Amino acid sequence: MRHADQNPDVDQLTLTDVLAALSDPLRVGLVRLLADGEEHNFGDFAVPVAKSTLSHHLKVLNTAGLTWRREEGTRCYIRLRRDDVDARFPDLLDTVLSAADRDDVGGHVTTPGKPAAEC
Amino acid sequence: MRHADQNPDVDQLTLTDVLAALSDPLRVGLVRLLADGEEHNFGDFAVPVAKSTLSHHLKVLNTAGLTWRREEGTRCYIRLRRDDVDARFPDLLDTVLSAADRDDVGGHVTTPGKPAAEC
DNA sequence: TTCGATGTTCGCTGAACATCGAACAACCTA
DNA sequence: TAGGTTGTTCGATGTTCAGCGAACATCGAA
């Protein structure tokens, strides 16, 4: 269940890798969901692709340094690496997320039932 | 000398296309040079690739909506579409250019002799 | 131990992309 | 008219990428 090179070091992040990771609508949709700051796992993403494809996209986000992942038993929890990305590329994530929200980029990425939370 | 679909309309620009165009170090280098706001042509770019490759990259930037091009005789003048991009995706270009400057992304893209200008 | 849930990895495919050199078109100039 | 300059387009080549299903590993629960 482990990736070869997970959670790269902050100073290994490159601008072009981050931009490449964000140049796919599905991945932008994932990042928008992750932008709540919470930890998520696969079940939290309702995407119109096979689970192997979802795994691939989440791996791209992780190796680009956009997400942090942590394993617990058979689940892996994923969270946006906002502070690290902000430290490395100030304002980039905010700017992209704002634009993505305005245009609803990756809007086909939703959450399933998600029981209204806050309880 | 004409491209099929040049200078796309402002509201045709998509976030992911722009980010994809900016996910290549060479193209980021070109954009950094273009960030002076001036018009440039091929001769202004000293890049370590064949001229057909340079043509390709400039076309990618143009179809993504990042540059404006204008033909005059046998030369084509290229300029950054900063106002349009800013209108469509506020702060994005500034943010990316700042990060690119800090990391010197695309630093291998330079200007040749460039006779000190301002005369 | 057996089953279900959760993700990863492994081929595999078709599409897209970066790169080159060569050929071409358009224009300017001598 | 003959060259030279400027940039585009056209194969060709090799790489990367998105996508799938199938197989696998791991864990918790029955």
Helix segment tally of chain A: 5
Gyration radius over CA of chain A = 14 Å
The main sheet of chain A comes to: 2 strands, antiparallel
User: Which stretches of chain A are poorly predicted, pLDDT < 50 over at least 5 residues?
Assistant: 114-119
- In the CATH hierarchy, the third-tier topology of chain A is known as Arc Repressor Mutant, subunit A
In terms of DSSP E residues, the strand content of chain A is 5-15%
End-to-end distance of chain A: 31 Å
Order of secondary-structure elements of chain A? HHHEEHH
Number of strands of chain A: 2
- Tell me the strand order in the biggest sheet of chain A: 1-2
What assembly state would you assign to the polypeptide chains in this entry?
homodimer
For the record, the CATH architecture of chain A stands as Orthogonal Bundle
Query: How much is the average pLDDT of chain A?
Result: 90
Share of residues in helices of chain A: 40-55%
Q: What is the general shape of chain A? A: globular
Count of spatially separate domains of chain A: 1
Q: What structural class results from the helix and strand content of chain A? A: mainly alpha
CATH class annotation of chain A: Mainly Alpha
Of all protein chain pairs, which has the greatest interface, and how many residues does each chain bring to it? A-B, 23 and 23 residues
